[in-house]
Amino acid sequence: MSKVVICDHPLIQHKLTFIRNKETNTKDFRELVDEVATLMAYEITRDVPLDTITVETPVATTESKVVSGRMLGLIPILRAGLGMVEGMLKLIPAAKVGHIGLVRDHETLQPTEYYINLPTDAANRQLIVIDPMLATGGSAIAAINSLKKRGCDQIRLMCLIAAPEGVKAVQDAHPEIDIYLAALDDALNEKGYIVPGLGDAGDRLFGTN
Ligand code: PRP
Ligand code: URA
What we know:
Keywords: Allosteric enzyme, Glycosyltransferase, GTP-binding, Magnesium, Nucleotide-binding, Transferase. The structure is a single chain. By secondary structure, this protein is an alpha/beta fold. The protein has one domain (4-206): Rossmann fold. The protein has 6 helices and 13 strands. The structure holds 1-O-pyrophosphono-5-O-phosphono-alpha-D-ribofuranose and uracil.
């Protein structure tokens, strides 16, 4: 079974409180999501392999570490996943970015894919699927299905907030996928929103409603 990692660093938890607050305006919401994405990028890359190289300091020659040639790819789920991309690229600027467009029907809660564009070498990369919200899990599962159909098999999932129902659904559908979260909330409400959650992530990021 995969692992579920709650990124409980105090700075992440502090910023998440302001992200949740309904009084936080679009500009601040966007900046906070960006900052939390950077902090979570630090956690999700904790186990990237290192190579040893020789480096000359002004004082001596020494062996030192660099991130190995393993290639990363970020896969934001449109729209709301876009809000986390720049923050992650601050720490991993060489990552390539692919996009998957999914929209959830408000009545059935079923996702429909309307767009996909991946780096040509996506199947050789360690991919991180990014979406602020993991609610029923339908969108994340659809995105992972789409990636697997195209030969990608090194996949992680990173979300700000998840409902237990969404985590279980992803684990049932894709038991090998590790999930990184800033918070695991209580439940879903009858409209498929995470409680307490943060509301509609896409609307809050882009100022729509
Ligand atoms: C939201 C969110 C996730 C999805 C989560 O997107 O950003 O992609 O819902 O719900 P699920 O786990 O039940 O599938 P939405 O479909 O509202 O699209 P948007 O990002 O364009 O607003
Ligand atoms: N999508 C959102 O944006 N928010 C939720 O609470 C659930 C799905």
